[in-house]
Amino acid sequence: MTTTIAGDGLDAKLAVLEAELAAFGAVVVAFSGGADSAFLAAVAHRVLGPDGAEAVTAVSPSLAGAERDDCAALAAEWGLRWRSVQTDEMARAAYRANDLDRCYHCKAELMDVVAPIAADRGATVVLGVNVDDLGDHRPGQRAATAAGARFPLVAAGFTKDDVRAASRQLGLRTWDKPAAACLASRIPYGTEVSVGLLGRVERAEAALRALDLSVGDLRVRHYGDTARIEVDPARLGLVVAARADVVAAVRTCGYRYVTLDLEGFRSGNLNPG
Known about the structure:
45% helix
């Protein structure tokens, strides 16, 4: 793994990020395995070492099994100090109700589990929130901040593109990893979240990934017996070309109707506009 970053001010931003992490002394990184948290975990490990940086992955029905497995693989590849912990947001009625504050209750549960781990180590919980995330509807950020979490990527001025560019130059294979928000983000607000629905969405997305269509970002949005597929707009044709296989794959997961969103993938597109 190289440590040289050049161009577009990334070197300056990385220096600020490293200084932020060093100032904490010890951190616990909420590690989902996505591009942002993976980058943060890798840099924290480089700055603070395994004694000062621990990556913690919250495991629950809202995390796809493949994502949990990739967290373990990344930790092994990069030599991270890592553990998985169980969270139980499904026990919270306010989370299951799936109103506009669902993410608040999810992050509150995360912090209830991870904060004591950090406290035992005299560490600060850090999340891979970047500058672009601040403009979206993300009530979970309020819950995390209220519980003492910090956002060092924001402090260093990293946008999503910055994270990917810096990750690429650091040799992190997550630099172009498709976004993978929690499975509950596939369920429209007002539809109660259940383990069954989360599992159905996970199986449908896994079935589509197994077709190896190279569609990049992928979502299956749940609307009763209808599945609405989102992929990168430039790759809509790949789904249409494999229409029969796509329909068959999604129907095996319990959906009657299979639709393709012609606007393509939009992160957080179920959030209020």
